[in-house]
Amino acid sequence: MYSDPADYYVEGEEVYPDGLFLPGTGTQRGSTFLETGDPLTPGYPSTETAYRVPEANLTTLPTIPVHPIGYDDAAEFLKLMGGEEVDDGWKGKLEGITYRYGPGFASPADDKQVAMKIYTSNKLAYGWNVIGTITGNVEPDRYVIIGNHRDAWGFGAIDPSSGTASMLEISKAFGEMKTNHGWRPRRTVMFGSWGAEEFGLIGSTEWNEEYTKTLSERAVAYMNIDIAVHGTYVISFSDTPNLSKAIYAAAKKVKDPKPSGTRVTVYDTWKERSLAGLNPDGTPFIGSLGSGSDYAPFLQLGGISAVDLSYVHDSNTYRIAGYPCYHSVYETFYLVEQYYDPDFTYHLAAAQLVAELARDVADSLILPMSATDYAAAVKGYFEYLRDGDIGQRMIEEGLSFDGMQSAVDNFTMAATEFHERLDMIDKTDVLQVRTYNDQLQKLERAFTDPLGLPDRPRVRHIVFAPSSKNSYASSKFPGIVDTMFDIDNNPDPNKWELVKQQLAVATFTVQSAASTLMQVA
């Protein structure tokens, strides 16, 4: 396994330590464990008293030996490979290499043996989460959570230390506001420093499993700041759609790190440089949440609204994956200070964004969460599904989207009427305010299925989930998408029954979400 220059190097650029690009000796490390949490305690917290599945009975651990190598070494193997030439999508940019699928060697003269020595062992070890709390002065039983993991592959100056530094500064600022200025948030603000993220989101997953009952009742939103800065071109957000307006409001309050002309705030630059373009209303595009970081267990296990952010490079100019030295030994403080953010102003802006968003959600009388934005997003995802290749293939098979259309329409109507009532409430009525806030807070829970997705019982969100084919990417209505994957080549005789089932589950879930927004009798 290696990182090809096509993904991690731009021709003519300097490699580390003379530049920020990955040298040929660079190896990207990571976990090939595709589940989340402690594999010995699936679904339950990994405490000292927990029952642990015997290691011999585990079916989720990787079984193929693997070792990351640099692209200089990879070239020596690839040039000897036989078989057909790969399609364009599989071709890298190693010079003098004809990329082939294999198997075997290009000629008998190339026949060689490679000795690979991998030293691994399975063992029980402690992982630590560190939680800091500022107790709310009005609603202490409502939690706004900011989180970052602190374990790393190597030095981890970008992943996760750019986020760690930012979160620590937020906690310091909030602490000073409390101690020196008498400020206390309306709701409790919690800071989570997660352990063992790189091994499969273990720290945050186990914390969610241990406190699942409490979090399902009390958590308002989770704000993830894993990588604060891995570029300096523009800010990038992913969220659950109910938080988008609050994100825009926060971005309009934070000064741009390098203001120029009409680009005064982070929002100004974001709108001008939005890599994915603008929405029809002129706002910058916000992505959807997949996995690969600690927001996933909050959203997938607890149905807790979430947001993730990072400053990124201009992907239209530098068509590379992530950032070049990702998870390598070259991810050092020198790399960040020399080539990314010498004066750390982008780190500051990222911290200010999360701080302002958290303050808004924690302090506002009415939660700054929009059910109508969520409804608009669900409607868009539904129409994309129905009108796209997957939906048309389902219609050809005789499946109808009428029921799901009705549920989407009902959700849209319920969200609209909810906000009309919300605009008219007596804000001095503590119980009335609490009632409407609870409906806003718990809307996300309505989109989770306790049985989980097909073959993924711990992935429970019906609207958003990590793609089953790419855990970093997000899939919309994943139960339907997963069961429809390669449907024509699926030998399972019940394949279409599974699709019908997931269509019914999605329909029921959207309708259930609508019912949570109806007027409380």
Q: What's the CATH class of the largest domain, please?
A: Alpha Beta
CATH names the topology of the largest domain as Aminopeptidase
Strand content: 5-15%
> Strand order of the main beta sheet, please?
1-3-2-4-8-5
Distance N to C terminus? 59 Å
Helix content: 25-40%
Average pLDDT number: 95
Strand runs, count: 10
Which residue ranges are poorly predicted, with pLDDT under 50 across at least 5 consecutive positions? none
Which structural class matches the secondary elements? Answer: alpha/beta
Please identify, by name, the CATH architecture of the largest domain: 3-Layer(aba) Sandwich
Q: For the CA atoms, what is the radius of gyration?
A: 24 Å
Describe what this molecule looks like in 3D.
This protein is α/β, with parallel strands linked by helices. The protein has helices at 5-8, 71-78, 161-181, 202-210, 212-218, 244-253, 266-273, 295-302, 333-340, 345-363, 371-387, 389-396, 402-422, 430-442, 478-484, 495-516, and strands spanning 130-134, 139-149, 187-194, 219-224, 234-239, 255-260, 263-265, 305-312, 464-466, 474-476. The chain has 2 domains: 130-363, Zn peptidases (Aminopeptidase, 3-Layer(aba) Sandwich), CATH 3.40.630; 371-516, Transcription Elongation Factor S-II, Chain A (Up-down Bundle), CATH 1.20.930. Strands 1-3-2-4-8-5 form a 6-stranded mixed β-sheet, with helices on both faces. Strand 9 (464-466) and strand 10 form a beta hairpin. Helix 4 packs parallel to helix 8 (295-302). It is globular, with a radius of gyration of 24 Å.
